[in-house]
């Protein structure tokens, strides 16, 4: 590969351009009119304006991005995360235009993008799924019967839902009826599809995900796992590697089923298997993400694998260059979110031993309001969790982002919480703390 177009913006675009530079691969940035002064535009070897500030007109504008790749003669497109990174139609368009999409095939993206087909695929591959109804329901009576077989409490989910939308906990048979009707009406109006399904409700699970990589020769490897339980309204806020509540036996099992699933579906590239972890040997498949994730740095810092470099090499047809992972350190990441748009009139990002920052910020940069609110990631890594937390606490204290409001104070509060320090948390802990 001589030239890669990065179909993204912000910190992940900068991250990918950096990887291209180290590989001596030319980079093409695409940008909207709102991003003409953005760092990724300045860092790339070439830059093409692809449309207006609204993502539909630019970063989601498939034809415009393909055209930019064609006029710059890019060999490949790296989609980053978000935007078109898990859009099977876009991956297919790249395939049809002879442009390498850096990721799995459009068929695999499509298969993993549909919850039902992903679940069926994983069951076939021997991956544990949450005990629940095999199919979707429209009728209340069928759903109620399934709930009785599973046992209360159950989680009622909209088949077309996701990311926490269209979910309801039902604690008893008595409340099943009116809850079902309400949930189905909500699903119908929110997603245009009233199909529902029922699962056993896991009361206090953790969200643990396994990073896998697979090449074009059938090799697949688990590179580590991340605990992403600290979420606020289904948005990850703090992520950790390794998942320190995970016992080794369960860790190995999760790795094995994740590698086997990747091989069974002939996966290519980086992938993340998301699980709900409910105790030793109790882990259940939630979904598979077919993109590089925001939180990839904590896996890089605990495995010494450059995951974006690996992604590009796999896309170039190289085999995975290692069979073992030397796992070391503990890493944790804090996502810095802008609460307001505006000009950064003072900027000091932390550094020093055990600290990494990934951002596209600079003094004088104007944070636009059109895009995702995450503007930086501060990562701390150290020999153990306690040291990494201490480093993170000091790093957050040191950080100055003037001119806009951010969630820095909230992050500092969380890091200093006693329950956080002893890891006495689960997926609902942060929502409770914030309210
Ligand atoms: C669950 C669950 C408990 N039991 N399913 C949230 C969005 C989607 N990824 C699935 N989710 C959940 N499904 C059963 N049977 C709890 C959640 C959940 C959650 C999962 C992972 C991370 C954060 C979460 C926050 C709230 C609920």
Describe the strand arrangement of the main beta sheet, using strand numbers: 13-12-9-10-11-14-19-17
Number of domains: 3
Helix content: 25-40%
CATH class of the largest domain, please? Answer: Alpha Beta
Q: Give the CATH superfamily of the largest domain.
A: ATP-grasp fold, B domain
Question: What does this molecule look like?
Answer:
It is a single chain. The chain has helices at 10-22, 39-43, 62-71, 88-96, 106-113, 115-124, 140-150, 176-191, 248-264, 296-300, 307-315, 385-398, 408-415, 418-421, 429-434; strands at residues 3-6, 26-32, 46-51, 76-78, 100-101, 154-162, 165-170, 196-200, 206-214, 220-232, 235-241, 269-277, 283-289, 330-337, 342-343, 346-348, 355-359, 366-367, 374-382, 400-402. It folds into 3 domains: 3-102, Rossmann fold, CATH 3.40.50; 131-200, ATP-grasp fold, A domain (Dna Ligase, domain 1); 206-434, ATP-grasp fold, B domain (D-amino Acid Aminotransferase, Chain A, domain 1, 2-Layer Sandwich). α4 runs antiparallel to α5 and α12 runs antiparallel to α13 (408-415). β4 (76-78), α4 (88-96) and β5 (100-101) form a beta-alpha-beta unit. With 435 residues, it is α+β, with helices and mostly antiparallel strands. The chain contains 15 helices and 20 strands. The chain has an 8-stranded antiparallel sheet with strand order 13-12-9-10-11-14-19-17, with helices on both faces. A 5-stranded parallel sheet has the order 3-2-1-4-5. Strands 7-6-8 form a 3-stranded antiparallel sheet. The radius of gyration is 22 Å and the shape is globular. Residues 130, 155, 163-164, 199-202, 205, 207, 231, 234, 276, 286, 427 line the site of ligand MV4.
């Amino acid at each position: 590969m001589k030239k890669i177009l990065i179909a993204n913006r912000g910190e992940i675009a900068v991250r990918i351009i950096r990887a291209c530079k180290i590989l001596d691969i030319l980079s093409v940035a695409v940008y909207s009119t709102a991003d003409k002064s953005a760092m990724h535009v300045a860092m790339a070897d070439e830059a093409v304006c692809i449309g207006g500030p609204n993502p539909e007109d630019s970063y989601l504008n498939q034809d415009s991005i393909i055209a930019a790749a064609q006029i710059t003669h890019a060999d490949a497109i790296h989609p980053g995360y978000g935007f078109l990174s898990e859009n099977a139609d876009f991956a297919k368009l790249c395939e049809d235009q002879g442009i390498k999409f850096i990721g799995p095939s459009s068929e695999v993206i499509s298969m993993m993008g549909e919850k039902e087909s992903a679940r069926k695929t994983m069951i076939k591959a021997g991956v544990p799924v949450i005990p629940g109804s095999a199919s979707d329901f429209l009728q209340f009576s069928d759903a109620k019967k399934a709930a009785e077989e599973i046992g209360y409490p159950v989680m009622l989910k909209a088949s077309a839902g996701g990311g926490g939308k269209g979910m309801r906990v039902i604690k008893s048979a008595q409340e099943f009826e009116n809850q079902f009707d309400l949930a189905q009406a909500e699903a119908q109006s929110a997603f245009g599809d009233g199909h529902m399904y029922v699962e056993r409700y896991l009361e206090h699970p953790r969200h643990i995900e396994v990073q896998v990589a697979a090449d074009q020769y059938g090799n697949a490897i688990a590179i580590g796992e991340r605990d992403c339980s600290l979420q606020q309204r289904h948005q990850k806020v703090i992520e950790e590697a390794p998942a320190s509540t995970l016992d080794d036996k369960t860790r190995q099992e999760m790795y094995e089923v994740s590698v086997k699933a990747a091989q069974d579906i002939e996966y290519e590239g980086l992938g993340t298997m998301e699980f709900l972890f409910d105790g030793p040997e109790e882990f259940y498949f939630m979904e598979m993400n077919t993109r590089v994730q925001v939180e990839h740095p904590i896996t890089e810092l605990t495995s010494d694998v450059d995951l974006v470099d690996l992604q590009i090499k796999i896309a170039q047809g190289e085999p995975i260059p290692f069979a073992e992972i030397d796992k070391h350190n503990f890493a944790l990441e804090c996502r810095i979110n802008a609460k307001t748009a505006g000009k950064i009139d003072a900027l000091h990002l932390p550094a020093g031993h055990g600290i990494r920052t990934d951002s596209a910020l600079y003094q004088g940069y104007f944070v636009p309001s059109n895009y995702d609110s995450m503007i930086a990631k501060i990562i701390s890594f150290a020999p153990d969790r306690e040291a990494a937390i201490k480093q993170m606490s000091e790093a957050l204290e040191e950080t100055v982002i003037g001119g806009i409001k951010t969630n820095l104070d909230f992050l500092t509060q969380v890091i200093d919480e006693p329950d956080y320090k002893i890891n006495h948390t689960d997926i609902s802990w942060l929502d409770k703390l914030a309210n």
